[in-house]
Design a protein that fits this description.
5 helices; 2,3-Dihydroxybiphenyl 1,2-Dioxygenase, domain 1; 20% helix; 2 domains; single chain
C-alpha cells in the first residue's frame, strides 16, 4: 500500500486559461494562488484541495458531463438563484449548456459547462442531511465540508455562495477491480453508493471523488489527474519502484516517468479504469 498523506489537488484541462479562470473565480468562488504561462493554481477558501488548470488550446477535446467537479451551497434556494444567475450571464462568461436544477443522488443540483468544455455542479444536500443517520452515510461526504460559512460579503451580488469545493469524478469499467485498487494499493476509503457508483476519499478529509461505471469512456491526457501527496521524495521514489516492478499485477495500466526537481518529486500513472493519478512530494 502507498502511504499517502492526502488528496492534495485535482487537475483540469481547458481551452483558454483566462476564460476558465473568470468562471472559476467569479462564479464558483475560487481564489487564484499562482499563475504561469498556460497554468494556474486555485483554491476555494473553505477547502484544502487545490485545483490546477492547464491550458491546452482550441484542440483540447470536449469533455462529457460525467467528467465534472462540484461546489456546494447551503440551501436549495441558492441552487435556484445560481441557475438564474448563470442564465442571465451566459454570454458574458461564454458558458455552454446550463441544466435546470434537478434532484439526484440526494442532491438538488444545477450543472453547467464552462468555456473549456468542463462540467461543473452546484449542489445542495440540505434535505439529505436532515437525519443524522443519513448524513453519516458514505463517509459523511455529504455533510458540510467547511468549519465556518463563507459570508455573503465575500461573494456578493450573485444570490448564492459556494461554501466548498467538494468533489471530482472518475470512470470505471469494473467497480470491484477499481475498489480493490483504490483501497489496497492507494490506501483510500471507498464507499459503495449504488450498483454503478462508488465514492473515494482520503481518510483525512471529506473531499471525495465519484467513480461511476462507464464503458468505452474517452481517455484524456495527464492534464486530467488527481494528486495524492506522500511524506517525502524518498516515498515517491519507493512508490515508483513498486509500480515499476509490480504495477501490472497491482492494476496499474500505464506508468509515466519519474520527475525530480530539487526538493520535489512526482510521477503519474493510470489506474485500472485508465484514470490518471499523480504521486507527489515537495510540490
Amino acid at each position: 500500500m502507498i502511504h499517502t498523506t492526502g488528496l492534495a489537488a485535482t487537475h483540469m484541462e481547458c481551452r483558454n486559461l483566462q476564460d476558465s479562470l473568470k468562471v472559476l473565480t467569479e462564479l464558483l468562488a475560487f481564489e487564484k494562488l499562482a499563475e504561469k504561462p498556460g497554468e494556474a493554481m486555485l483554491k476555494h477558501p473553505n477547502t484544502h484541495w487545490k485545483l490546477v488548470v492547464h491550458e491546452a488550446g482550441l484542440e483540447a477535446p470536449a469533455k462529457p458531463m460525467h467528467n465534472h467537479w462540484g461546489v456546494r451551497v447551503v440551501s436549495p434556494e441558492e441552487v435556484d438563484r445560481a441557475y438564474a444567475y448563470l442564465l442571465a450571464h451566459k454570454e458574458e462568461y461564454k458558458l455552454g449548456a446550463i441544466g435546470k436544477p434537478t434532484w439526484s443522488h440526494g442532491s438538488y443540483s444545477c450543472y453547467f459547462v464552462e468555456p473549456g468544455t468542463n462540467g461543473w455542479e452546484i449542489e445542495c444536500y440540505e434535505a439529505f442531511n436532515r437525519k443524522q443517520a443519513t448524513a453519516d452515510k458514505f463517509g459523511a461526504v455529504k455533510t458540510a465540508h467547511w468549519e465556518r460559512l463563507l459570508p455573503e460579503e465575500k461573494f456578493p451580488g450573485r444570490g448564492y455562495v459556494p461554501q466548498g469545493f467538494t468533489h471530482g469524478t472518475l470512470v470505471s469499467t469494473d467497480l470491484e477491480v477499481s475498489k480493490k485498487f483504490y483501497k489496497d494499493v492507494l490506501g483510500l476509503d471507498v464507499h459503495r453508493f449504488s450498483d454503478h457508483v462508488i465514492y473515494i476519499k482520503h481518510p483525512s478529509a471529506k473531499t471525495f471523488v465519484v467513480c461511476a461505471i462507464r464503458q468505452n469512456a474517452p481517455v484524456f491526457s495527464a492534464n486530467f489527474r488527481n494528486t495524492l501527496s506522500v511524506a517525502s521524495t524518498n516515498e515517491v521514489k519507493a512508490a515508483y519502484r513498486t509500480f515499476a516492478e509490480s504495477g501490472t499485477e497491482l492494476g496499474v495500466r500505464e506508468l509515466f516517468p519519474l520527475r525530480e526537481d530539487g526538493s520535489s518529486a512526482s510521477f503519474c500513472f493510470r489506474d485500472p479504469g485508465t484514470n490518471c493519478w499523480e504521486i507527489a512530494a515537495g510540490t
